[in-house]
Amino acid sequence: MEQAHALDWATEQFGGAPLGDHRRVKRLIRYAAAILIKPSASIPAQCEAKKDFSTAVNRMFRGDKVTFQSVSADPRRQTIERVFVSVVDRGVSQVPQERLRGGESA
Predict the structure, then answer these.
(1) What is the pTM of this model?
(2) How far, CA to CA in Å, does 47 sit from each of 28, 55, 57, 59, 95?
(3) Distance separating alpha carbons of residues 54 and 48, to the nearest angstrom
(4) What CA–CA distance (Å, rounded) separates 106 from 91?
(5) How many CB atoms lie within 10 A of CB 104?
(6) In this structure, are residues 65 and 24 in contact, taking their beta carbons and an 8 Å threshold?
(7) What is the largest distance, in Å, between two alpha-carbon atoms of the chain?
């Protein structure tokens, strides 16, 4: 996959991540694109041996603002919205909102 497409995908998936600082979001997007291009490589290899970027990625993941919940919040929201639209498009109108938001099922 080429870099531009990887960055577009990563921006769509993680651009709204609540990481507390826009620089963290930009770093996450850049790193997610790098993972998409080289999924089996090490962090330094994914970062193309750019020591500053590799160090920044490691520091980002060690921080308390970048958690599984914060990184996955935007993709999870997008998935729920797509499922809801799909369900509505199919004419199923009796889907409890709490189930769509991840609440307990009845």
Answers:
(1) 0.68
(2) 12, 9, 9, 14, 43
(3) 8
(4) 21
(5) 7
(6) yes
(7) 53
Structure tokens at 13: 């998936």
Mean pLDDT by 10 residues, the chain (106 residues): 87 90 92 92 82 86 87 83 69 57 53
Amino acid at 58: N
Are 74 and 13 contacting, i.e. CB atoms less than 8 angstroms apart? yes
* C-alpha–C-alpha distance, residues 33 and 7, integer Å: 5
- Quote the CA–CA distance of 99 and 76 in Å, as a whole number: 13
Give the pair of three-digit tokens for residue 17. 């991540």
What the block records as the tokens of 50 is 């750019």
